[in-house]
Amino acid sequence: MIQQGQPLSADPRKLYRGVGANCINMGSCTMIQFAAGGSLKKSVLGSDQTRNLTPSEEVACGLGGGILSASVGSPLELIMIQQQRKGKNTINTLKDVAVPSVITRGLLGTAVREGLWTVGYLSIPPIIRRELMTRYPERFDSVNKARVPAALLGGLFGCYLTHPFDTVKTCMQGDIERTTYGTFTDTAKKIYTESSIAGFYRGATFRYGRMVCAVFMMDVLQANIGPLLYPKAFE
Predict the structure, then answer these.
(1) 101-104 contacts at long range (C-beta below 8 A, 24 or more positions apart)
(2) How many Cβ atoms from other residues are within 10 Å of residue 115's Cβ?
(3) Tens of pLDDT along 145-191?
(4) pLDDT digit string (tens) for 73-125?
(5) At residue 51, what are phi and psi to the nearest 5 degrees?
(6) What's the pTM?
(7) Which of 94, 134, 138, 151 sits 20 to 30 Å CA-CA off 24?
(8) Please, are residues 116 and 162 in contact by the beta-carbon 8 Å criterion?
């Protein structure tokens, strides 16, 4: 709501509008990102599954996994945002958005955001952890010690680099009637005209706090679940 310049209510009935669509969105997108990112990493490694990916390979795999997840995430976020704006139930909201000209609204912004966000939590933390443990082995003598700064930097990357795209996307999806916001470019121009660069970072502080926690948890899960899913790669 802050991103769209709307007042934020403390009423739980309003705060939790769209939570169902959001839960499905987070779960399905994370699943796609992990699966697609993991498959891309496996393909890049080829016959040598024991070596570490280079930083550029890590970033490319994360970016690809994130972009693929946007096809699922964008429509779900559209439903969530419309529920938050109008207070309708899921069925009535689906009726409003289930047309080709509306259901794809905000897809470009979602693809860019999810691509960069996935880099932030799947690619950046392993790169930072390895660098810290290699350069400062006495201070970072365990994976867990290196994981906290890696999560902070991954969250910083994932939040502040993606937030402008997320703001444009959110404004577009909140205005399916196109009363105020038109195309991606038109929306970006309007936000800049009204609020300059600061307008693209509305609500960024709240999002950063959430992302640091998420990146830390995702990094732990990836490190622990990865060997279970792909045991040969971790032998």
Answers:
(1) 102/78, 102/176, 103/75, 103/78, 104/74, 104/75
(2) 23
(3) 898 888 888 878 888 899 999 999 999 999 999 999 999 999 999 99
(4) 999 999 999 998 888 988 999 999 999 989 999 999 999 999 998 998 888 88
(5) -80, 160
(6) 0.79
(7) 151
(8) yes
